[in-house]
Design a protein that fits this description.
The chain is mostly helical. Helix content is about 85%, strand content about 0%. Helix 10 packs antiparallel against helix 13 and helix 13 packs antiparallel against helix 14. It starts with 7 loop residues before the first helix and ends with a helix.
């Protein structure tokens, strides 16, 4: 592929399926756990998993911070024809990712109990949450480096390998989930160990890229500068916040659901959370399909090609978001039954929650694309604004205010309003940039 000469639409098509497949299957690591745990262990177990999910967000977010931030700068440097600088960005990003992983390993194991208390583990969910989290922390390296390596391998023009790696790991994870939870009866420990093994296999397959002749991802210690690390932080922060804000939001809405509806509310919210993982994975795949093309052409100052990719990317994101919204509106009970065997109380609460929450996926898919687009054209402040509004500021404000008027329904509505208001601001920022 020649990212500077081939048809932008054809390039986007070539990246689309591998990128969506890779990001989609990444969500399987959590979804397989959720479905198997919900069906094979019970409602309290899936509520406990939802409490632990913010730890996943931190790991994936760190991989995205240095992976996406470094890969964008890598692509811009390659578009400029500066391969030496591109290698230095990769080197600094890899070193920073390793340093953060080591910190998480130590802190996560030393302070695990207070962390779980802070996240909201109760007497009913504590045993499930602790058994899952203690193994999860040991898997920090593979979770963080899986996202990191995917970003760089994809931007180094090898999206198919990224797809194969993630699909292989995801399928293995699903098989091992079933084996460990059902025949072997290992419970929460089996679920998380399956995820660690599957993700580890993904990392090993991604490492094949380094043995290819065409690989540009090489460690270079020559003329490394602290400012390279600063730039990686600058352009990767929005990706990090996208993941972290998801964890913060899960934490806040778990607390609110617990306050207004007890463990029942947390269980219903876990269905919405896991559905959002699928939608966000597809939307991220669409955005990541466009990102290497946009970043490389930005480095080459080819504005017309950038605009063409942005247009087709936004249309694809709109179609995807609208499709998921239609599924939630038409088949809310089917969504619930995918994850749990619902009680009568859950069946009474869940359908309205699913319908409201799923409408917000239309705006969410477009917001995710705009975030990645602004990253790729080195406009980090705009990308950060979108992340902060949809993931932290508006969502959290609405999550505390709306339930005062709408009770538990206000919690589901908070995300919908936050996404659509953010989308309007994103369009205004893009219009102003032009």
């Amino acid at each position: 592929m020649d990212l500077l000469k081939d048809s932008p639409k054809q390039l986007f098509s070539k990246y689309l399926v591998p990128s969506v497949s890779a990001t989609m299957v990444t969500s399987i690591y959590i979804l397989a756990d959720s479905i198997m745990i919900g069906k094979g262990i019970g409602e309290l177990a899936i509520a406990a998993l939802n409490i632990v999910l913010p730890l996943f967000n931190i790991m994936f977010g760190t991989g995205a911070l240095f992976g996406v931030g470094g890969a964008v700068l890598f692509s811009v440097a390659m578009g400029n024809g500066d391969t030496d600088r591109a290698k230095r960005y990769f080197t600094i990003a890899a070193l920073l990712n390793t340093a953060f992983v080591l910190f998480y390993l130590v802190a996560g194991n030393v302070f695990l109990e207070p962390i779980l208390t802070f996240l909201g583990a109760t007497d009913l969910t504590w045993a499930y949450a602790y058994n899952y989290a203690k193994w999860l922390m040991l898997g920090t390296p593979v979770f963080a480096f899986s996202v990191f390596l995917q970003s760089f391998v994809r931007n180094d023009k090898n999206p198919k390998l990224a797809m194969v790696a993630v699909i292989t790991g995801g399928v293995l994870n699903t098989i091992l989930d079933w084996v460990f939870i059902y025949p072997m009866q290992l419970g929460m420990t089996g679920a998380v160990v399956a995820s660690i093994i599957g993700t580890g296999v993904t990392c090993l397959i991604l490492c094949i890229h380094f043995f290819r002749k065409e690989c540009n991802l090489r460690i270079s210690l020559h003329r490394l500068r602290p400012r390279y690390g600063k730039e990686i932080f600058q352009y990767g922060t929005s990706s990090f916040l996208t993941e972290i804000s998801g964890g913060v939001l899960i934490f806040v809405l778990n607390q609110q659901a617990l306050l207004y509806a007890g463990e029942l509310g947390v269980t219903v919210y876990s269905v919405l959370t896991n559905s959002a993982y699928i939608v966000n994975a597809v939307a991220n795949g669409i955005a990541q399909a466009a990102q290497p093309i946009i970043a490389t052409n930005f480095g080459a100052k080819a504005q017309s090609r950038i605009d063409e990719v942005k247009t087709v990317g936004l249309r694809t994101a709109l179609i995807a978001g609208s499709t998921f919204a239609a599924i939630g509106l038409l088949f809310p009970l089917a969504v619930v039954y995918i994850f749990i065997n619902p009680t009568a109380a859950i069946l009474e609460m869940a359908p309205l929650a699913v319908r409201i929450y799923f409408i917000g996926f239309i705006a969410a898919a477009l917001n995710i694309f705009f975030t990645t687009y602004f990253q790729a054209i080195l406009q980090p402040s705009k990308a950060l604004t979108i992340c902060m509004l949809r993931g932290l500021i508006l969502s959290i404000v609405f999550a505390y205010v709306l339930p005062l008027v709408l009770d538990i329904t206000g919690i589901w509505t908070s995300i919908l309003l936050a996404e659509f208001i953010t989308l309007g601001i994103a369009f205004m920022m893009d219009k102003k940039r032009k």
